[in-house]
Amino acid sequence: MVRVTVFEERGTPVGFELTGHADAGAYGEDIVCAGISAITETALLGITDVLKLDAAWTHEEGHLRCELNRDTSPEDMAKAAIVFNTMIAGLTSLQQGYPKSLKFSYREV
């Protein structure tokens, strides 16, 4: 199961972390894992490459974490929230089709 934790600051998403594997297919052929990876890695690119925001991130097998730095302006946090909320919408849609492969939690930071 993939576990996604969304980091929030006063109800606004400021980052996320995912761990695990979907285990919905053989390694390299798991379409759920591929979908989750595509959605979350696109969100990371949206934050770092498109919006060019300063964020701490790590990416390795079975783990991805991205969190805005604390000195991010309110305007940039609002832009990032659009990216994070789009990621959440995509993952929620995927979760509806594969409820045993993905679990969400939210944590105030």
Question: What this model shows, in words?
Answer:
The chain has 109 residues and is α+β, with helices and mostly antiparallel strands. The chain is built from two helices and five strands, in the order ββαββαβ. The protein has helices at 31-50, 74-97, and strands spanning 2-9, 12-20, 55-60, 63-68, 102-108. The chain has a five-stranded mixed β-sheet with strand order 3-4-2-1-5, with helices on one face. Strand 1 and strand 2 (12-20) form a beta hairpin. Helix 1 (31-50) packs antiparallel against helix 2. It is globular and about 40 Å long. The two termini are 24 Å apart. The mean pLDDT is 94.
Low-confidence runs (pLDDT<50, min 5 residues)?
Answer: none
Given the helix and strand composition, which structural class is it?
Answer: alpha+beta
Shape: globular
Residue share in helices? Answer: 40-55%
Order of helices and strands: EEHEEHE
Major sheet: 5 strands, mixed
Order of neighbouring strands in the sheet with most strands: 3-4-2-1-5
Share in β-strands: 25-35%
The total count of helices amounts to: 2
Average pLDDT confidence is 94
The end-to-end distance, rounded to whole angstroms, is: 24 Å
Radius of gyration: 14 Å
Question: How many strand elements?
Answer: 5
